[in-house]
Specification:
Layout (H helix, E strand, L loop, with lengths): L7 H9 L24 H5 L4 E4 L8 E6 L2 E7 L2 H7 L32 E5 L10 E3 L16 E3 L6 E2 L20 E3 L4 E4 L11
């Protein structure tokens, strides 16, 4: 995979698929939309917090909820993914999350999360607001990402790529990492999106 830019073949592919801005992880993993856990339309409109129960989320799976009209993803990362994240640092644009407004302080760490196992991201590309696809390693061929694609997020609108901590690769249009929304753990199974968890309470 050429991380530093988009090849001519991929550019032609992207041109042909520029209208594809739809679902997350299409065809590669189960991605349930958790409508039963969302507040009403009125409370969503005013930015009410949203609770997610992750007790049935399988390793490698992604779920999506709406918060403030935005898709928010929760991914349960596997131990293999966690081991891989630090090896990607040399080929990422902002591996240490130095652009501080892209995540709360308590998520400014190697995993960009409170709990390394669970990644919480706003599912909107930081380029022009498309919704990237969740592409596991086995699905890389569909987007011509190469045999060394470790899994992550690919935006088919303009070719931006992010790893499984939401960190952006260089040579793509997206200028910054994906946003980590404010969130906290109510207990081991419930995450609340839209309420900050104090840095002093962050899980080690």
């Amino acid at each position: 995979m050429t991380m530093g830019g988009v090849s001519g073949g991929r550019r032609r592919f992207l041109t042909a698929t520029a209208s594809v801005v739809g679902g997350v992880g299409l065809g590669f993993t189960a991605v349930p939309f958790i409508s039963a856990w969302q507040p009403s339309e009125r409370t969503r409109a005013i930015g009410a917090p949203v609770q997610i129960n992750v007790s049935k989320l399988e390793p490698g799976q992604l779920i999506t909820v709406l918060w403030r009209g935005k898709p928010v993803w929760v991914v349960r990362r596997t131990p293999e993914v966690l081991d891989t994240l630090s090896t990607l640092d040399p080929i990422l644009r902002d591996p240490d999350s130095e652009v501080t407004d892209q995540q709360p302080e308590y998520a400014r760490n190697e995993y960009r999360s409170l709990n390394p196992e669970y990644l919480v991201l706003v599912g909107i590309c930081t380029h022009l607001g498309c919704s990237p696809q969740y592409v596991v390693a086995a699905g890389a061929d569909r987007y011509n990402l190469g045999d060394d694609w470790p899994g992550g997020f690919f935006c088919p609108c303009h070719g931006s790529m992010f790893d499984l901590a939401g960190r952006v690769y260089p040579g793509v249009p997206a200028p910054t990492n994906l946003e980590v929304p404010p969130h906290r753990y109510l207990d081991g199974d419930r995450i609340e999106i839209g309420v900050d968890h104090g840095a002093e309470d962050a899980l080690s």
